[in-house]
Amino acid sequence: MRSNGAVGEAASDELTALLARLGELADLPTDPIADGGVALVDQIATLERLRGAVAAAQHTAMVTFARSQVELQAAQVAAGQLDPRAVGRGIGDQIGLAAHVSPHVGSRRLGVARVLAEDLPAVRGLLVAGRISEQLAEHVVAQTSHLEPEQRRLVDKQLAGAGLEDQGRREAEETVKKTAYEVDRAGYVNRGRTARKDRRVTLRPAPDTMSVLSGLLPVEQGVACIAALRQHADSLIATGEAGDRTRDQIVADTLVERITGQKTATDVTVELEIVLPIDALLDPDSDTPGELVGHGPLPGDIIADILATTTAKTWWRRLFAHPKTGCIVGGESKQRFFDGLLAKLIDIRDHGRCREPYCDAPIRHRDHIRPRRAGGPTSLSGGRGNCVRHNNTKEMPGWHHRVIHDGLGDHPHTVEATTPTGHTYTSRAGP
């Protein structure tokens, strides 16, 4: 009998061969076929089922990996190398790195995989067979998250014969929601009340120099907000005060004005960190883009529009960038902590985001890449921006980080992360 390690290696080889075969199918010519593509429809259907089967196979690998890591960490606790409270930390991070997603997504996927394996075997079976999508399986997990394991298994049995595979997305999601509700109506109500404590407002970048401001609110409050904004817009249109603005534009402007207390939406008084290359400053007609830190590139014309239409005070701070890479290279410091201008330079260089590969979380800590206790310098090249999670994870046994390029030469600031399994991942600072 082969060991688990040998089975794992064989599976990896098979998956590599499967990936190569799928690559061949992807590279087939797309010329029209004489029979109208009857066989291709069957191929499309089979490949769609393969999506679910692949997700289920990945779930199995995640659960197995997590169990192995927990056993390893338990041994480290017994040896006095790890705080018992840290058991489980870093597992989702490694999954995220392997899947090229954030650690939050990696942990969420692991959570879904565990629930499907332990409490929802019938739903998982549908996923293995490719009869439902990964998204629907995740929806089942989310809708049953408030239930006890026994109740979740009861939902699983009922969904097994509910015909989810023959339903459209919305119908299937409603079936899942209704089934979960019927199993524990009181719990469903309590869940709704608890969810109201999670109300919040978030901001994320959007294409074309825009942003998305989102509010997670109790339903009656959300309805009241949009109704008030639309009513105001309709009144301006009715009285002819709207000018050339559309209803949606008036709604958006009114939202900004009422939240900030500004007279007009363009009367911005917040600090915007716009990084401009030197040629854009010297040549007013230059088409070289700048960057709004944390949001992405800004064309020169848009920058001019922002500066022309806002009443924010304009001030300058000299930053030094490498002429080839465009990366920030100034701001050395002999201090122990990353604060003041040095912290600001790290935030700008790292675009306001955690420098662990594939992590999109905002910077909450500026820390030494090489630990301070090991002689790591408190400098721009020796520090990086971290989210809270990765600042804690890097202290776990087996995690190592080192600077590959300090960013002062022809290469951008580059950091290599090594996980407890020996896999390495690289993070480069953008210009």
UniProtKB/TrEMBL annotation:
It comes from the Bacteria. Residues 77-259 form the DUF222 domain. Pfam families: DUF222. Residues 416-431 have a biased composition (Polar residues). CDD domains: HNHc (cd00085). Residues 412-431 are annotated as: Disordered. This is DUF222 domain-containing protein. It comes from Actinomycetospora atypica. The lineage of its organism: Bacteria, Bacillati, Actinomycetota, Actinomycetes, Pseudonocardiales.
